[in-house]
Amino acid sequence: IMHLNFALFFISIFEMISLLTGDVTFQEQYNQDIGCFAFDHINYQKVEPEYALSMDKCVEKCLGNYFRYCGVVNATLCYCGSKLNTQGPSSCNLPCLNNSVEICGGLNAISIRSTGYLVPGPPDNVKEINILENAIELTWTEPKAPNGNILNYDIQAHPLETFANKIALPSHSWSYSGNTTKAELLGLHSGTKYNFSISAVNDNGIGKGEVRAVWTEIGSPPIPDVPVVLLTEKNKIKIHLKPVINEYGPITSYRIVVSYDVGRLFTHEELKNWSAAESEGTPAYITAEIKPKEFLEEFFVGDGNLYGGYFNAPLSSKRHYHVSFGIISTFHEVSKASYSNFTHLSNHFTKTISIEENNDGDTVLNEILIAAIVVSALVLVLLVVAYVYLRIKLGGIVRPQNLQEMVFQGPFIDMMEIKFIMKNFWGICFSILFVNIII
């Protein structure tokens, strides 16, 4: 009696909720006696023997499994089903083992009662067979307890978690015909965990949904901006990196890639460390991999340190370098990457920098000295030419002894000054050469 009162109370509450929501209709009462029928096991599913001890226990078990009907055969077996037996009435005369007042079927006869649950049970064997960035493909089979003809399946998707922190993600709903057992759910956001609920609908309403929580596959990170070169130094380049906001998955690491062949394209899988690239003759390598918490906007390419296990090798003066900034996103064993470029072609490294250096470190000083020597030599040649010219032009002129003053109509040249210049010509030349070298 206590079990019966509790069940009636439960059904009353359930009926009230159903009336408010419109999801469930109870045309048959809980634990209502339907009749005695010839047993046909095709329409019923057997449950554990202990539930055959009384009709009440059998009703509770079948209601918990969302079946519309229950029945006991031979007072020893409890069965659940969605539709009535079609074999016609029979004779039920065996008392229940735990309640002799109740009748629990007969020889090959089943005493049937209603559970009051008229809508379908949840669809069975729901599986995700294909998970993409913006879609998920589901399959299922008809509910074990259809409780009538299935008219259609309703599917709901509600976002639970996402990497899209700045995007308000909507919920989605789909409806498929009753003979459909497969659906491709489109319009989802990548890198998002959705709560999927699939419910069957019959003439009496929508049944309980089967729920799955599934992550969509992460998407490729947005292409970052090309690094800005701040300055070049011996064997290294200082660059500025702009951080990226990824709405399609996590940022697992930042990656800096160096290439010296701008005409070749490289895939994410081809990129290796500096040592492997050098040994294989690949003109591109990963020079650094940095975790987000260690990210700095300014970075020296070629500083000789290790970053994430990658050697940031010093640069060579014999090559023109191209630098790319990459974003790596890894989640649920899926890894995707994007790299900066000018041409918007993925993995095309286009930032070209020339490094000027010398193995002994004295290239600039040597070039200055060579230029000074060349200039001094030219000055010396000009002075020699001037000396020869003056010797030829003025070699025969002698200053008169008694002449106190000479007046020329043209430019005046003091012969003593000329003789002094010619006498000390080579000393003057070497002095000028020395001054040029010092300068």
From TrEMBL:
User: What sequence ranges are listed for the domain Fibronectin type-III?
Assistant: 119-223
Regarding the membrane, this protein is recorded as:
Single-pass type I membrane protein
Span of the secretion signal?
1-22
Tell me, in one coarse class, where this protein mainly resides: membrane
Q: What is the lineage of its organism?
A: Eukaryota, Metazoa, Ecdysozoa, Arthropoda, Hexapoda
Write the protein's name: Fibronectin type-III domain-containing protein
Please state every residue range assigned to the domain named WSC: 30-116
Q: Which organism is it from?
A: Clastoptera arizonana (Arizona spittle bug)
Q: Which InterPro entries match?
A: FN3_dom, Fn3_PTPRU, FN3_sf, Ig-like_fold, R-tyr_protein_phosphatases, WSC_carb-bd
Cross-referenced PANTHER family: FIBRONECTIN TYPE-III DOMAIN-CONTAINING PROTEIN (PTHR24051:SF9), SUSHI DOMAIN-CONTAINING PROTEIN 1 (PTHR24051)
CDD domains recorded: FN3
